[in-house]
Design a protein that fits this description.
This is Replication protein. Pfam families: Phage_lambda_P (PF06992). The chain has about 110 residues and is an all-alpha fold. It has 5 helices and no strands. The protein has one domain (about 1-100). It has helices spanning about 1-5, 15-25, 35-45, 60-75, 80-100. Helix 3 crosses helix 4 (about 60-75), helix 3 (about 35-45) crosses helix 5 (about 80-100) and helix 4 crosses helix 5 (about 80-100). The relative contact order is 0.13.
Length: about 110
Amino acid sequence: MDRCRAGETWPPDLAEFVALIPESGANPFGLTVGAVMEEYRRWRNESWRYDGSDKYPWSQPVLYHICLEMRSKGIERQMTEGELKRLAERQLTKWAKHVSNGLSVPP
């Protein structure tokens, strides 16, 4: 409904639909790419208060793995905000597949 109010057509074309899927939180964690980016920023700004990343109060265990990967690759490759967002999307998809294959997220 928000899309229609914004003047966008419904139903979306294929490219718009593919772009909307990550925004819908269609994964076993109920996370969106935006939520991952928000948690990543919060962790980067507050991590100095904790003895280690494993001591940080993650809202979900999968975010520990996603955010560490984002930090590692983000620094190594000097990624922009857009590149980090795409990486977050890929990591979220990777972990969703991992869980859908019957595996669990390590603590």
